Amino acid sequence: MTTTTGPPSRAELQSQRQDEILRLVRERGRVEVTTLAEQFDVTTETIRRDLSGMQKRKLLRRVHGAAEPWQAVRYEPSISARHSQQVEEKRRIVTAALDELPPEGTIMMDAGSTTSLFAGYFPPDLQLRVVTNSLLIAPMLAEHDSLRVIVLGGTVRPQTASMVDHDTVETVRRMSVDVLFMGTDGLTPERGFTTPFTDEAAVKQAMIASARRVIALVDSTKFGNDHFVRFADLTDIDTLITDTGASDADVAALEAGGLHVVRV
User: Fold this and answer.
1) Under a CB-based contact definition with an 8 Å cutoff, are residues 174 and 207 in contact?
2) Tens digits of per-residue pLDDT, 37-65?
3) Residues in CB range of 165: below 8 A, 6 or more apart
4) 108 CB contacts (<8 Å, ≥6 apart)?
């Protein structure tokens, strides 16, 4: 009697794909989501779901639109690398964020590649006080005669060119601002906004507490990344502006948790 073997099931294909993903990650140390999607001829959303499931099983870690071995030393892109990633998506995000600028008052800007890009889009006649802990944002905004720029003190973190220490936190705690614009390293419906670094988390928490409104500028590659320290729940953020790479399922899960999401 001859047994006919049919095509592999969806579960079998997923298992085979994840086995190969794990092999590639261990072999190369870091593999981009887009590279995996092209190699397996599936969507980036499918790969992100694979990586999320594998991360829960502690097979690998999701970081900045890529995957690394679970036991790998934390990888942090250089400043130049951060600024060269998802450029078009970030441009759409910051253009939409211009509508969130108040007509007057004080805003605060967290250090990050997206917020730095945002600073370059400010209208030349904007009348605001701007507080930032970023050595990249401050000189850009200082070129505007109409802006009053305040730079937070503290120890400079070279990887982000930002001030992040106890003095920074204490200074922020004495402030009250109208709007905070900030970024994140990771975002999941379960844990909210996360970062690998405790010092940056402390500064971000203080900034959120000081602001009447909080706008998060987050490209979709950060979705599904769950890092060491949580600095905000979904309900701590008033509006999340992201790009159209964010899936309907991701957006629905975040909105179900109380976060207002804008895709551009």
Assistant:
1) no
2) 999 999 999 999 999 999 888 889 887 78
3) 154, 155, 199
4) 130, 131, 132, 172, 175, 177, 179, 180, 181, 207, 210, 211
**Measured CA angle at 76 (ends 113, 197), to 5 deg:** 90
Q: What is the 3-state secondary structure (H, E, C) of 158-204?
A: CCCCEECCHHHHHHHHCCCEEEEEECCCEEECCCEEEECCHHHHHHH
Instruction: Spell 21-46 as b/e; 16+ CB within 10 A means b.
Output: bbebbeeeebbbbeebbeebebebbb
d(CA 26, CA 41): 21
pLDDT at 81: 57
- Centre a 10 Å sphere on the Cβ of residue 170 and count the other Cβ atoms it contains: 12
Instruction: For Cα atoms 193, 238, 143, give the angle at the middle one, nearest 5 degrees.
Output: 90
What are the start-end ranges of the E strands in 23-127? 31-32, 60-63, 66-69, 106-109
pLDDT tens for each residue of 192-249: 999 988 899 999 999 999 999 999 999 998 998 888 889 999 999 999 999 999 999 9
| Structure tokens belonging to residue 111 | 């250090």
Chain length of the chain: 264
Bridge partners of 217? 241
Calpha distance 135→154 (Å, rounded): 11
Tell me the average pLDDT of the chain. Answer: 90
Q: How far apart are CA 141 and CA 149, in angstroms?
A: 7
User: At a CB cut-off of 8 Å and minimum separation 6, what does 6 contact?
Assistant: none
- Token readout for 59 is 């097979």
Report DSSP state, residue 209.
H
Rounded to the nearest 10 degrees, the angle between the axes of helix 198-210 and helix 166-173 is 10
